[in-house]
Amino acid sequence: MSYKNKVYVSMDADNDLRYYYLMKAWKQNDNTDFNFYDAHDLNNIYDKSEESIKAGLQERFRNTKVFVLLVGDHTKYLYKYVRWEIEQAIKRDIPCIVVNLNGKRSMDEDKCPALMRDHLAMHISFNSKILQYALENWPSSYEQYTKEGKSGAYYYKDNVYRELGL
Question: What's residue 1's pLDDT?
Fold first, then answer.
């Protein structure tokens, strides 16, 4: 079995790809420890059929430690890939972090895809410090909460953001 150490990022690539690129810049500039899979960089898949693309994405999920969903204005309407990626993360019991691009620090019921509203997930605002904190802390909390049978949206209290200087 391979060691799961990657962060899989899902998003509305047509509208929110710039946020993913900003996250990659944080990684380079802040020397943060995220190791992203760009689900939208499918250059190694020669057959661009939906079946082939999803097979390639399945391979990426095999090494995924944390699933990050960037939630923008249109994310909840995307079914072909984003919904499928959410389903894969849930099916594989991968800790999920929902990142609100509008700055909201808890679940945004208006923008969050329906599958993630009741699923055990951490909801945060888009910021490098809180994302790094969630990547470091949420997987162990997720594991514990799963054992306890908990579900639903979780979020960090204001004091966590304050301690991070946010």
Answer: 42
Q: Order of strands across the sheet with 36-38? A: 36-38, 6-10, 64-71, 96-100, 121-125, 153-155
Q: CATH number of the domain at 6-163, out of 3.40.190.10, 3.30.565.10, 3.40.50.11200, 3.40.50.970?
A: 3.40.50.11200
d(C-alpha 53, C-alpha 149), whole Å: 33
Most confident of 2-6, 78-82, 151-155: 151-155
Query: pTM for the full model?
Result: 0.89
Confidence of residue 140 (pLDDT cuts 50, 70, 90): very high
